[in-house]
């Protein structure tokens, strides 16, 4: 039976230059591989070792990128190794099969969101009305499923975030702050539901996972074994659960460690 590896991407496996956390002496810094270019500029990186390990992972597991990114944002990433047969985008709103969204899955998700949550228009209007232009740089809607703000973190009032979280909770939505992005996402829109669907389709006997943000908590609760890096919302709040290993590594080195853990766990299962 196959092993399924469902991993978050940004700040888990791939890292922007601002998130690399290269705290070691320059001469000891790892060699990096650029895996994403946007508007002719390098955007995201892995260590070369992590890239090699991710390529090797295809020999023992079904690798499923599992991201909050939109389909367009995901498809500009050039991950090493074979192209994944499955990928999960928009926090579970789209299940890609060979790069194409599964229409039946998307319809099931949107039907559930419509039946259980306040509409996206209400949430977006609330964000437009209450977020101060002094610290908001962009308002965005992703795939007509959820909304997010690009903010100046040093100016963002913590009380406003807490008040937004309470307001959203009462309407069936959740709030997550990741780097410079503040997400408002309907609760039924989860990575875990999409991962369970891929596990069903592949007949996976073991599911491994990794993630760094509160939006990854439901994913980690759904896997058999998981890892979180030493940075991100989950680390900041001390979040843990049975079967989850909290790693000390931070930044791009954490991504390399996570990929190594995937390889070890998958290899033990295949023996």
UniProtKB/TrEMBL annotation:
SUPFAM superfamilies to which the protein is assigned, alphabetical: HAD-like
InterPro entries xref list: HAD-like_sf, HAD_sf, TPP-like
GO molecular function: hydrolase activity
Keyword Repeat: no
Record keywords: Hydrolase
Name of this protein: HAD family hydrolase
The species this protein was found in: Streptomyces kebangsaanensis
Record lineage: Bacteria, Bacillati, Actinomycetota, Actinomycetes, Kitasatosporales
């Amino acid at each position: 039976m196959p092993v399924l590896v469902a991993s978050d991407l940004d700040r888990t496996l791939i890292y922007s230059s601002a998130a690399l956390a290269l705290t070691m002496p320059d001469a000891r810094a790892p060699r990096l591989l650029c895996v994403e270019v946007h508007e002719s500029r390098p955007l995201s990186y892995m260590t070369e070792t992590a890239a090699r390990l991710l390529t090797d992972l295809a020999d023992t597991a079904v690798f499923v990128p599992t991201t909050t990114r939109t389909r367009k944002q995901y498809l500009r990433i050039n991950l090493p190794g074979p192209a994944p047969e499955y990928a999960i985008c928009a926090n579970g709103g789209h299940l890609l099969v060979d790069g194409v969204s599964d229409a039946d899955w998307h319809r099931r998700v949107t039907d559930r969101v419509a039946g259980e949550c306040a509409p996206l228009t209400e949430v977006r209007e609330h964000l437009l009305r209450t977020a101060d232009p002094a610290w908001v740089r962009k308002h965005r809607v992703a795939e007509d499923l959820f909304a997010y703000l690009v903010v100046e973190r040093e100016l963002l009032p913590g009380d406003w975030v807490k008040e937004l979280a309470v307001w959203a909770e009462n309407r069936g939505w959740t709030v997550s702050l990741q780097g410079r992005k503040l997400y408002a996402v309907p609760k039924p829109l989860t990575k875990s539901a999409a991962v369970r669907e891929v596990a069903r389709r592949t007949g996976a006997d073991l599911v491994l996972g990794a993630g760094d943000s509160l939006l990854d908590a439901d994913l980690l609760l759904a896997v058999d074994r998981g890892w979180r890096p030493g940075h991100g919302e989950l680390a900041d709040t001390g979040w843990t659960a049975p079967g989850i290993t909290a790693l000390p590594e931070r930044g791009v080195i954490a991504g390399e460690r996570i990929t190594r853990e995937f390889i070890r766990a998958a290899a033990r299962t295949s023996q």
